[in-house]
Prior knowledge:
Elements: H1 2-26, H2 30-55, H3 60-87
Amino acid sequence: MTELAGSLFILLGSVFLFSAGLGLLRMPDAFTRIQAGTKATTLGATLIMVGLAIHHPGWTFKLLLIVYFVFVGNPVSSHALARSGHKTGTPMWRGRGRPETRD
Length: 103
């Protein structure tokens, strides 16, 4: 039963990582790509680590450390990317945002 639960977590995490890849391909500008990639990869990687912890209980502490670094690293790196894109003048998609913020 635990093997099935671990496999389901891994499968669900893989689905989220796949959706992150699709988001990177389908989104219209760099800022929405950052958003799609960060949120889905954080959840997908976490679910995969949970599934691996269920499959291999001896690895749990190491996997929790990896999850911690994913939770800290993904938002910080996406913020840095978005900030640098904004500072360098990366154009936003015309169809998003409030009218007063559009160029």
